[in-house]
């Protein structure tokens, strides 16, 4: 006779997310924490959008034939932010376990602002601060 499957009581997703956020937040004030998280989410988003267009430009099919994947104008024409090599998500992930990852992320934010004037002075550069534990921001 088959054993009855144990019922697993799971918390709602919202509760799980809050617990995870609190673990990551550690000693950072919640008002400051949003800048850390939202900045990383924005960086990941624009890096992904850039990567998709970069791959299409590299393939050079159809109207993109002969396009330079490192030409800022190609991205501007498609309303995609240009992300310099040192600010792209894979570059940062490769350095995620280094103790100076915060410096790399801050430098990435600076590089993105330099390449995209509409973002000048908008992106957070808070990742090299002492109260952030770099071991909690990997992945």
UniProtKB/TrEMBL annotation:
**Swiss-Prot/TrEMBL GO biological process terms:** DNA restriction-modification system
Give the protein family: Belongs to the N(4)/N(6)-methyltransferase family.
Query: Gene3D superfamilies annotated for this entry?
Result: 1.20.1260.30
Q: Does the keyword ATP-binding apply?
A: no
Which UniProt key words apply to this protein? Restriction system
- What protein is this chain from? Type I restriction enzyme M protein
Organism listed in the record: Nitrosomonas oligotropha
Report the InterPro entries cross-referenced here.
D12N6_MeTrfase_N, SAM-dependent_MTases_sf, T1MK-like_N_sf, Type-I_RE_MTase_Subunit
Please list the residue ranges annotated as the N6 adenine-specific DNA methyltransferase N-terminal domain.
Answer: 13-128
Asked whether the UniProt record includes Nucleus among its keywords, one would answer no
